[in-house]
């Protein structure tokens, strides 16, 4: 059953989604620094987790439809690969306001779980190299650690190589 760290924050929609699904997960809270240049790298450093095991949630548009890409914080998104994985022709980064409005989360805290409107999701294939990965739990300073297969199942994600170093 779900393991919760001692420092778990309030239940976000992402945590509620994981709890209701009955999957094993752990939350990690840390003090977010508003001056941090990269939310993901800040999370990896604060938790003492290798950056390749901490994944960021990016919202892009694939042929005009909002689509989520979940990639390591140490990588960049390959837009052509995302478009192909999502069954489209063209991809571009989404307008941040549209991403926030559609997911119900603020930038830097967008989780692939518990979105207001669950968007099509592509999880980078490198996730399968890890027993668990960390993704945003729905607010800055809170991460959820879970098995990549559980994340893929809960989001209906396609698993494909969409990140580049």
How would you characterize the overall build of this protein?
This protein is α+β, with helices and mostly antiparallel strands. The protein is built from five helices and ten strands; from the N terminus they run αβαβββαβαβββαββ. It has helices at 13-21, 39-47, 79-85, 96-103, 148-155; strands at residues 25-29, 55-62, 65-72, 76-77, 91-93, 121-124, 133-139, 142-146, 158-160, 163-164. Strands 5-2-3-6-9 form a five-stranded mixed β-sheet. The longest helix has 9 residues, at 13-21. The chain is globular and about 40 Å long.
Helix-strand layout with pairing:
Elements lengths: L12 H9 L3 E5 L9 H9 L7 E8 L2 E8 L3 E2 L1 H7 L5 E3 L2 H8 L17 E4 L8 E7 L2 E5 L1 H8 L2 E3 L2 E2 L1
Parallel strand pairs: 3-6, 6-9
Antiparallel strand pairs: 1-8, 2-3, 2-5, 4-10, 7-8
Main beta-sheet annotation: 5 strands, mixed
How many strand elements?
10
Q: Give the radius of gyration.
A: 14 Å
Shape: globular
Strand content: 25-35%
Succession of helices and strands: HEHEEEHEHEEEHEE
Strand order across the biggest sheet? 5-2-3-6-9
Query: Structural class of the helices, strands and pairings?
Result: alpha+beta
Counting DSSP H or I runs of 4 or more residues, the number of helices is: 5
Low-confidence stretches: 1-9
Helicity range: 10-25%
Mean of residue pLDDT? 92
CA(first)-CA(last) distance: 35 Å
In short:
With 165 residues, the protein is an alpha+beta fold. The protein is 25% helix and 28% strand.
Keywords:
5 helices; five-stranded mixed beta sheet; 10 strands; 165 residues; 28% strand
């Amino acid at each position: 059953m779900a393991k919760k760290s001692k420092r778990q924050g309030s239940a976000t929609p992402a945590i509620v989604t994981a709890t209701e699904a009955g999957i094993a997960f752990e939350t990690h809270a840390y003090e977010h620094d508003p001056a941090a240049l990269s939310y993901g790298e800040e999370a990896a450093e604060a938790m003492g987790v290798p950056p390749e095991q901490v994944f960021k949630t990016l919202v892009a548009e694939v042929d005009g439809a909002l689509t989520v890409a979940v990639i390591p914080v140490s990588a960049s998104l390959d837009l052509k690969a995302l478009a192909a994985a999502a069954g489209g022709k063209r991809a571009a980064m989404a307008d941040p306001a549209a991403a926030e409005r559609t997911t119900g989360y603020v930038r830097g805290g967008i989780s692939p779980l518990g979105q207001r409107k669950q968007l099509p999701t592509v999880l980078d294939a490198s996730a399968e190299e890890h027993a668990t990965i960390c993704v945003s739990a729905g607010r800055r300073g809170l991460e959820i650690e879970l098995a990549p297969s559980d994340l893929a199942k809960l989001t209906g994600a396609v698993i494909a190589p969409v990140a580049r170093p």
